[in-house]
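User: Good morning. I'm curious how NAP would be positioned relative to this chain. Could you predict the structure with it bound?
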Amino acid sequence: MAMQSVNPATGDTIETYDIWNEAQLEKTLADCNSARKIWQATSIGDRCDFMRQAAVVLREQKESLAKMVTLEMGKLINDARAEVEKCAGVCEFYAEKGPTFLADEILESDAGRSLVTYQPLGIVLAVMPWNFPLWQVFRFAAPGLIAGNVGILKHASNVPGCALAIEDIFRQAGFPDNVFRTLMIPASRVAGVIEDSRVHAVTLTGSEPAGRSVASTAGKSLKKSVLELGGSDAFIVLEDADLEYAVKQAIVSRYLNSGQSCIAAKRFIVVNEIADRFVELLKDAVSELQPGDPMNEDTLLAPMARHDLRDELHNQVIESIAQGAVAVIGCLPEDHPGAYYQASILDHIKPGMRAYDEEFFGPVALIIRANDEVEAIDIANSSRFGLGGSVWTENVARGEKVARQLECGSAFVNGMVKSDPRLPFGGIKASGYGRELSSQGIHEFINAKTIWIR
Ligand code: NAP
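Assistant: Good morning! Here's the predicted structure, ligand included:
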């Protein structure tokens, strides 16, 4: 059996990689288990220095890493460069803040001295998706390794080149051997790794079905898990919004990465008073998003990452249209050899349609019209998902009031939902549990140990 990198812009196979046999997996787990003791004995100052060096390596190799990302999953080359830069940034953020986030806390009690100290859990398995193939891994690995954990990565099967490149970045940065390893295994072998007694916790970023599977194995094994799953973020446009600005941000938020972002704006909930105008402006802007070679810096619309994902998106679109949704623009696969889908808008989405209930993981904006602010909030909260959401209004106090009522992990006012190392990131409901980034992210995979001294 083998894993393949396929260029989604052309359909050409780039490279084939062997899948590991049981002996290779067993040796790696044993090696990582030995590395755990060395890494935990390394001072946090030294761990931070290694992470700073990882940022240096990332920047030195920005161009080759960005090309690898674009070739394997199709994102626009400038976006891939920005992703590498963001990874370097998260390494530096935790190298600077990690020691403070993990410092002992002295607590008052009946002891002569009592405190809580933060210690690593051990080996943490990361099961990761292809849509931000570097960033998703670094946002786990930077805090995880600085906290003293060993990281093992099961990356998505369509980005094996990126998976091996990440392992190599830590090697080149001078990390001790086996502190971070990539496992070349398929999804069907993840459960066995979670169950292995040398593995202490698991974090998964991916779809809801994968989340259910990983969480149930972790639950049966009594191991800590963090799940970052799908989303169908609301983008609420109120009648007093700056429409031109909201549309500009809507374009970035929905069509970046060809719509394949968990925190992309997916449901545009627009109050009736300005809905026609909003759709008209959005349609004009969408018509500019023409597909092209993602390696070309002028291209505006990238291919989707795989043909099967493109075909599934098209099924969701045509079934929604059959259920009464209105195609405003696009709504067809591009007539092109790659996995391209036209930048699209579906209007008049109603409960019961696939477009109302499901995540659309591609370049399709879904318009839901609402009578007023109250109904817009109800629609936003009617989703099974609860990752992010945004509200657009010239009245910032009103925006904050709406943001506080949204059932999600991150609510933005007059800004597209984004991740930032300084702010916690994660979801509720079917979008998962646990938090990444900020001090909360580094605290997910540690033992908060109480020390009591008479
Ligand atoms: P996916 O199919 O769930 O794959 C994600 C990872 O899970 C891959 O490494 C995959 O391996 C593995 N996997 C799949 N099924 C599994 C199972 N039953 N047990 C163990 N591992 C399993 O998701 P995707 O299509 O790559 O990514 C898209 C989804 O991820 C969307 O729903 C998106 O919203 C979500 N996402 C969420 C976030 C967030 O931060 N919340 C960020 C990015 C993406 P194989 O590749 O080998 O199948």
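The first strand starts at residue 2 and ends at 6. DSSP finds 15 helices and 20 strands in the chain.
Let me know if you'd like a different ligand tried.
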